[in-house]
Amino acid sequence: MSENHPTQRPLSDRVARRVVRTLGRLPQPLKRAIAGKPISIDGQTLDVEAQVGVRLLNLAVGETFETLPVDEGRRQIDGEAWVFGYEHPVHDVRDLILPGPGGDLPARIYRPAGLPALSAGLVYFHGGGWVLGNLGSADSVCRYLADTAGVTVVSVDYRLAPEHPFPAGVDDAVAAFRHVVAHATDLGIDPSAVAVGGESAGGNLTAVVSLVSTLEARTDPSVPVPAFQLMFMPVTDLTTKHRSYELFSDGFFLSDAQMDWYKAHYLTDPAQAHDPRVSPLLAADLEGLPPAHVVVAGFDVLRDEGEAYATRLLEAGVPTTFIRQEGIVHGLVNATGVGTVARRVLDEAAGQLRERLVPLAAEEAVR
Fold this sequence. Notes:
Strand order of the largest sheet: 3-4-6-5-7-8-9-10
Largest sheet: 8 strands, mixed
Structural class: alpha/beta
Number of strands: 10
Helix content: 40-55%
Oligomer: single chain
Strand content: 15-25%
Number of helices: 12
Distance between the termini: 41 Å
Shape: globular
């Protein structure tokens, strides 16, 4: 029985999930009545579905995770992911173990029906500020992308801070990607068509794996480089707070205070923020990185640094698609069980995966 099965969830989560599903099916005028007066900031208006979700969270959560012990914060975020997510059917879902530099890394592979013997692959890193999150919190996104894009997804449960601060998560992400490439055929994946992707801190790890791999491959051609990088609302700069921090500091799911909490747990020395493996926006050279798809949320403290990173990729000649999804909040990509916004964002990303990766796998199969 999966960890997401309702009988394994607390009663409060099960009730909340039913309420959220019911609200998601309401007509727009009723959603607006529940959401309250439209909120407009910086020339955009908060999507009514996002506003309902944020209002529910603000009412339901007595204390936000940054005021709680880490273990309780992890349980809270895990519960929220289950409440708003959806267990999209996928033909084959299996847990597995990958070797990591600090020990075994739990992972999960998603393989939809009808794939060729060797399909394109995506190594996915969950969000949670390098402190929270797990395979369960990324489950709904991985299922959706696997089935919609027609790729094999390998989700990685990298080590978390504060027990394992920087660079443990980076080291795990790099090792996981390289292991998947080295053992791709055993996993039903074409080694020439392996992408990396992730959301928030996972988007940060996606950027860093791509950066580290590209730089190392310049002197050692045997080092594998991702075929593509998919970033949802990535953290790209922990050295400064961009203007979006001021605009959306509180009340839109991810707050200024929570980012401070994440940073304090992830880094053992504030100076580490200047390391490009923490803040890839500061990397001196982005030339030659894999093609990228970058999505930012309009109402998100991370919006401007994500947009700045996409701009730098384009300036470096990296084929990059960039979407500012106006009207949504951080993390909404995980809310596949409510409304249409998350699925719309993921459908666009799945289209990019099909366009960039599936032809690579097909070409290799012909050779």
